[in-house]
Amino acid sequence: MTDQEGSTPARFSPEETGPTSAMSTTEDGALAGRLVLIAGATSASGEAVARALTAAGATVLAVGARQEALEALADAVPGVDTRVCDLADRDAVAELAMRIHLKFGRIDGLVHLVGGWRGGGGIAGQSDEDWEFLERGFRTLRNTTRVFYDDLIASPAGRLAIVSSTVVDSPYAGGANYAAAKAAADAWTRAVAQGFAKQAPQSAAVVFVVKTLAGLEERLGDEVVALWDADAASLNGARLKLRMDG
Predict the structure, then answer these.
(1) Average per-residue pLDDT in the chain?
(2) Within a domain: 4
(3) DSSP string, 56-85
(4) How confident is the model at residue 245 (pLDDT cuts 50, 70, 90)?
(5) How many CA atoms does the CB half-sphere of 75 hold within 13 Å?
(6) Percent of the chain scored above 70 by pLDDT?
(7) Is the residue at 5 inside a domain?
(8) Fewest beta carbons less than 10 Å away: which of 68, 115, 139, 164?
(9) Is residue 210 part of a domain?
(10) Would you tell me how many other CB atoms lie within 10 Å of the CB of residue 157?
(11) Is 60 within the bounds of a domain?
């Protein structure tokens, strides 16, 4: 989802206040009985988030486009319910929601991890093909949040989380397409947060900001879990920076 760096321990940047990671991993915690959907669950970060949520007592719905990758995830994280869906197709997302509601009821959380990086070549080299690939990831966020919005405002503890990039604040010519797509997702999520503030003060939408996810996967899982252990009003609309320790 982001450009890659070496793997070292991570922590929140001091400029931003993130939720504590001291979430209990027993079924007595705030996630016990919660239903959380991970969109784009077959990446390394998706596996880490699924494992952390399951350990905290949540029921996890892992959604992706490739059946074989979902089967590998189910083997790696026992208890995860996997679903194949083209999240860029709103009708397919609506059908997914119908099936989830019939079997489980409404969801309490949506963790959006669909993404990827394309770039290079300066401004003139920002291709339409790369933009279409990156815009597709943004489309999956629009589709899933629109379809599951009513679930998240009805939940007693609704949570939406996405992963954005530091390039939103510091864009560069060779990554202009990528920065624009990430900025769109960032703004969309904060608009959802404004909707929550008006309609569901018990719910929160947050943006995790990283330079790279390499080496941050387990920490991301911990911080996603901790969202349910923090006050919604203090989280809603926040951009929470995760960075590599120096």
Answers:
(1) 88
(2) no
(3) TT-EEEEEES-HHHHHHHHHHSTT-EEEE-
(4) low
(5) 6
(6) 87
(7) no
(8) 68
(9) yes
(10) 18
(11) yes
Phi, psi (deg, nearest 5) at residue 60: -110, 130
Phi-psi region of 9 (alpha: psi -120 to 50; beta: other; left: phi over 0): beta
Q: Does the pLDDT at position 18 exceed 70?
A: no
Residue found by looking up tokens 């997702």 in the block: 185
Q: What is the pLDDT of residues 121-151, one digit of tens each?
A: 899 999 999 999 999 999 999 999 999 999 9
Taking every pair of Cα atoms in the chain, the longest distance, rounded to a whole number of angstroms, is: 55
Per-residue pLDDT tens over the stretch 198-239: 999 999 999 999 998 889 999 999 999 999 999 999 999 999
| pTM confidence score | 0.88
Q: Which domain holds residue 60?
A: 10-244
CA distances from 35 to 6, 106, 202 (A): 33, 7, 16
> Counting Cβ atoms within 10 Å, is residue 141 exposed (0-12), middle (13-18) or buried (19+)?
buried
Cβ atoms of residues 140 and 114 within 8 Å: yes
Other residues' Cβ atoms within 10 Å of the Cβ of residue 71: 12
